[in-house]
Backbone:
């Protein structure tokens, strides 16, 4: 059966890789994006394919289309972008979820929500299992994103309980790879662009805070597996790579792989910046038979090659 798949946020970093994989798998894809952080160039390779359609639309407004699967990814994901217009960020998560759930209800589509490790806030439990409820500041500068995503999860589970929708919720941990926005302020893109331009590498705080980085191909694979999983498996399920590195370690690896002579400089730590983060992926391993395969070193090489091209273009 050919699926008719809606991908919201499909012109963004993760969304565009997802569209590529869905098209390669033979599905019909409707990519919806308001191009706030996404870019038509991310999906230019698909234009002209009769199974691919690109639509400019903001998910905070209702959308009437006929599909049988929905991947809801629309939402700026990096702090500088989601803090640019925080009210719009909450609206995108909350009104966007209501509209996409309303759509899924009307057309009886299966719907997957791209949630985030940020629902755990600055966690007191390490690594984070899905059963941990998190430690989130409700009124801080990250709250528009964290609480917006938490409310979206609530809506997904209430539509599931109240309207028996087929829902899937994935909590995505830090992911990197080609087509990340070069100016989105995220650590991997920042460090690589700085290293390639010979600019100072900006370490926030003392650089001892840690993150776990997943390469985009691994992440898209598990999102597809989740969408195909049995109806009774709703999640939430953590997806990410448990390999954990401090920001100092990441900087050193990027410098080496990019053969860069950039210096490390230290800048203030943003408020509410989590000290450590690592997914517990036992559930994804048990239920989806998945584990990430791409080592940080290999993923960084691909990402550096992408940014090298972009910068020289
Ligand atoms: P991205 O910014 O590249 O993609 C988001 C896309 O959504 C962009 O194309 C943007 O233009 C679009 N968008 C934003 N607001 C919209 C609106 N109101 N209507 C329609 N489109 C809108 O970010 P990404 O890294 O690809 O993230 C995709 C999803 O995955 C997001 O929901 C994000 O919260 C989630 N996520 C990503 C990561 C990560 O490390 N990349 C981690 C956790 C969660
Ligand atoms: N909605 C949409 N597309 C549809 C069906 C619904 O965008 O195909 C929106 C609709 O505008 C509504 C929201 O989804 O505001 C929630 O729909 P639901 O049917 O759950 O609630 P209600 O319409 O009763 O508020
Ligand atoms: N960070 C950094 N230098 C930068 C950008 C980010 O040291 O130029 C740090 C940031 O303070 C955080 C970590 O890298 O501790 C990851 O930041 P990112 O914004 O990529 O992801 P998130 O904080 O949402 O996990």
Residues:
């Amino acid at each position: 059966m050919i699926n008719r798949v809606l991908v919201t946020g499909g012109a963004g970093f993760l969304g565009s890789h997802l569209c590529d994989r869905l098209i390669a798998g033979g599905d019909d894809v409707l990519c919806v994006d308001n191009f706030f952080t996404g870019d038509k160039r991310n999906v230019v390779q698909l234009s002209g394919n009769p199974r691919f359609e690109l639509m400019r639309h903001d998910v905070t407004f209702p959308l009437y289309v006929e599909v049988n699967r929905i991947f809801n990814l629309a939402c700026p994901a990096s702090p500088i972008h989601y803090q640019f217009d925080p009210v719009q960020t909450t609206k995108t998560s909350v009104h966007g979820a209501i509209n996409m759930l309303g759509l899924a209800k009307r057309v009886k589509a299966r719907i997957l929500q791209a949630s985030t490790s940020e629902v755990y806030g600055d966690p007191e439990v390490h690594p984070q299992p899905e059963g941990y409820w998190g430690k989130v500041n409700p009124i801080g500068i990250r709250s528009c994103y964290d609480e917006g995503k938490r409310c979206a999860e609530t809506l997904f589970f209430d539509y599931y309980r109240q309207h028996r929708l087929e829902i899937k919720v994935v909590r995505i941990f830090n992911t990197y790879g080609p087509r990340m926005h070069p100016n989105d302020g995220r650590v991997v893109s920042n460090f690589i662009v700085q290293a390639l331009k010979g600019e100072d590498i900006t370490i926030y705080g003392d650089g001892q805070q840690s993150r776990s980085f997943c390469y985009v191909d691994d992440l898209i694979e598990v999102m597809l597996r989740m969408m195909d999983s049995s109806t009774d498996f709703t999640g939430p399920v953590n997806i990410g790579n448990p390999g954990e590195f401090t920001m100092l370690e990441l900087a050193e690896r990027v410098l080496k792989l990019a053969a860069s002579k950039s210096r490390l400089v230290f800048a203030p730590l943003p408020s509410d910046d989590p000290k450590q983060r690592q997914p517990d992926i036992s559930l994804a391993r048990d239920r989806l038979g998945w584990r990430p395969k791409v080592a940080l070193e290999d993923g960084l090489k691909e990402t550096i090659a992408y940014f090298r091209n972009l910068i020289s273009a």
Remarks:
- The first helix runs from residue 13 to 24.
- The chain has nine helices and 13 strands.
- The longest strand covers residues 110-116.
- The radius of gyration is 19 Å.
